[in-house]
Amino acid sequence: MSNDEKTTLSYRTAEFLVKKPILSIAFGVLFIAAFVSGLPYLGSDFSYRMWFRETDPLLQAFDEFERQFGNDENVVIAIHSESGVFDMDTVRLIHQLTEDMWQVKEIIRVDSLSNFNWVHAEDDEMIVEPLIPDLEELELLEPDELDSLLAARYEVARNHETVPGYLLSPDGKMALVIGVLKPAIGGTPDYNEVMSSARMLMRKYSSEPLSENLRDDTFLPKYVGQGDHTFYMSGSSAVSQTFKDVTEADLETMIPILLLAIVAFLLISFRRVSALILPFVIIVPSLMMALGFAGWTGFKFNNLTSTVPHILIAIGIADAVHILVTFFQFRRMGYEKVEATKKTLDKNLLPTLLTSVSTTIGFFSFTTAELVPIIGMGVLAGVGTMFAWIVTIFVLCPLLTMLPIKVKKEENATHISDAHPLAIRYVAWLQKVRIPVIVSFGFLAVFAVYVALQNEINADVFKYFSTNVHTRIANFYIEDQVGGISAIEITIDSGEPDGIKNPAFLKKVERLEDWLDSRYHITKTIAITDIIKQSNRSLNNEDPAAYIIPDNQELVAQELFLYTMSLPQGMDLNNRMTLDNRRMRLSAMTTMHKSAEAVAEFDLIEIKAKEFGLDAMITGKNPLYHRMNGYVVETFIKSILLAVFLVSILMVVILRSVKLGLMSMIPNLMPLVFGGMFMTLLSKPLDIGTVLVASTCLGIAVDDTVHFLTNYLRWRRGGASRQLAVAHVITHTGPALMVTTMILVAGFGTFAFAAFVPNINFGILTAIVLTTAIVTDATLLPALILGKEQEQEEPSDQQVVEAAA
């Protein structure tokens, strides 16, 4: 080694670390402790609010809706009876379940057939009474009278304007009990309490033994009751809690699978116990530090930040493998552990730092996102990547000088100045076919871009859950039997106090309702217009022609007054109109789940409302989730452009050449293009999960390029020809790149076992892109580097040794 090389920062740092390992480790431990101490402050949030900044106009509009009309979040329990729900057994269940639902935490209102306010006339008087009478009243009837009454009420329910498709299936075999949560303006309900309470309630009616762990109910196909009764539970509260449940279940499932895969790869690669244990010196502290950092900075644990442990485990292993592969190479050549560690650090310090920085850049590009969990995931994965590098350099490497790791010298070990014959032959072959290789990649890239552009930007909240998740099963089954249980909430401003009693205004609302009812995805609309028309009909001796909005405002006011005076406590109309009677709420129950389709429909509804002369605004939890789609697109564009720009600058600086730096981006961008193609071919739309793939993969995939090119340049500066330099990189750096890629692919591949579908998509696509990246770096990158075949002198052995030292 020359005197100049001994003055480099890498060499001097390596020398310091191996000479003072205890001081280095002490520094590392103090650094770890400073961040790990934030762990007690780590919180979690799986609510709808976690996605948005508090200043987001969508969130502010929803908060205003809550202040005016209350919460639109609910717990929906469906009772299915193959023999029909209008028999005494099922009616008793509906009554009991309705009463019990009032006891569920944070439930402020319950709607069901047993308390639905049926408006009808009796002896020239308008009567408002429960559709199904009290149990005490029913139990006093003779069997024939009971059957007759229930049959009559079934006919009323079946032919009612509101009940079918809302509380009852058209075939009369399923009934819904809907519990509405109290408002949580500016905050969120405690979904864990709500759903734990609701699940305990369902277990009361279940006839099958269930696990003691309530969370296991997340994966029940259904609750089986007595007789022919089965129960299903869904609703917006169930969705929010299921996000948390599947995240916890995924962690419990995937972490062991990931660790087993890592152990297998490490055993195959190193065949020694020390190589199994040492990587955990990086994994555990860096992961704890990242979570502690989240505690200190206020980032919450949620569905997206839950991916951070898997990412950091894979990255920590990759850092360890680069160090250990090089360390054992030097040990097999006969170097003692201190000298082997010094040479390992000297060779890997700069490349590992640069790859950690490039990976961090990829993750930090998500800080431009509007969706808070994406920002959190990017920041935590980014700082965790740097934490892993610091622990690797300041703890793992000094440990190598102190631990009694025995490695036998191998006489036939490939010397640092030797390139493997297979590598030399491969490079010679690649030199001959470099033009076809480059052209082939060019054609593939054009095809991949074309296919990728055919993809759509879309999401489906319920299809975020795998097919064995109860909330998904329940929702689609209820929709199939009854109708939509998710609502598009439309607030309509009449423009003045008491304006909602104006017949002209109400008739405009009626026209909007009629239009909405004609839409294929709307299964029911609910508004005070229905109550007014029912009341007017009842006051006109049930004349079907009187099912209209009266032309007289005073009459409308009287009908609303008569109706509200007959209502039981807790069943008023405050959730349908504001106290000053200026604004009203129209709920359109929908089966529409695809966000792209939904957002277009929201815009159309607002246009139609304007055409009818109404000042209307779309809000509610359902539109809140769907309108995140625009943020997904914005995040994708901003993050990938920022990541490409910053990584390009990094590569130019690393390689000290604008031409070489920009050229090196070609093999890094190629896998992203192929990833976009695979997304389309695998029918994976651009959503919250897949939007993360591009920037994440760019940051990680460029690691291989950095290792390849920095080591290539070392050989070139030592006088090696292009061909020989590439062969040396393949020989000495290639194994570490291959092992780290396999570990990363295995790490992200474990997401295939997840129950949260965006994580599945993210993991699978990332694994595909990283596999493509190593193939590209092994073929396209050297093909670009080699250039035209030239006659070059072979370097001397001394030059080669100096280049590799």
Structural description of this entry:
Keywords: Cell membrane, Membrane, Transmembrane, Transmembrane helix. Mean pLDDT is 86; it is low at 1-5 and 789-805. Helix 9 (236-270) packs antiparallel against helix 27 (734-749). The strands form three sheets. The chain has a five-stranded antiparallel β-sheet with strand order 2-5-1-7-6, with helices on both faces. The chain has two domains: 3-48 and 242-408 and 419-454 and 628-804, Multidrug efflux transporter AcrB transmembrane domain (Multidrug efflux transporter AcrB transmembrane fold, Up-down Bundle), CATH 1.20.1640; 57-237 and 472-626, no CATH class. Strand 6 (223-224) and strand 7 form a beta hairpin. It is 60% helix and 8% strand. It contains 29 helices and eleven strands. It is an alpha+beta fold and 805 residues long. The chain is elongated.
Tell me, what is the CATH class of the largest domain? Mainly Alpha
Mind telling me the C-alpha Rg? 33 Å
Apparent shape: elongated
Write down the overall mean pLDDT.
Answer: 86
Whole-number tally of structural domains = 2
Uncertain stretches: 1-5, 789-805
How much beta, percentage-wise? 5-15%
Task: Name the CATH superfamily classification of the largest domain.
Answer: Multidrug efflux transporter AcrB transmembrane domain
Largest sheet: 5 strands, antiparallel
Count of extended strands: 11
What spatial order of strands do you see in the largest sheet? Answer: 2-5-1-7-6
Question: How is the CATH topology of the largest domain named?
Answer: Multidrug efflux transporter AcrB transmembrane fold
CATH architecture of the largest domain: Up-down Bundle
Q: Provide a count of the helices.
A: 29
User: What distance separates the N and C termini?
Assistant: 6 Å
Structural class: alpha+beta
Protein name: MMPL family transporter
Main location: membrane
Pfam families: MMPL
Subcellular location: Cell membrane
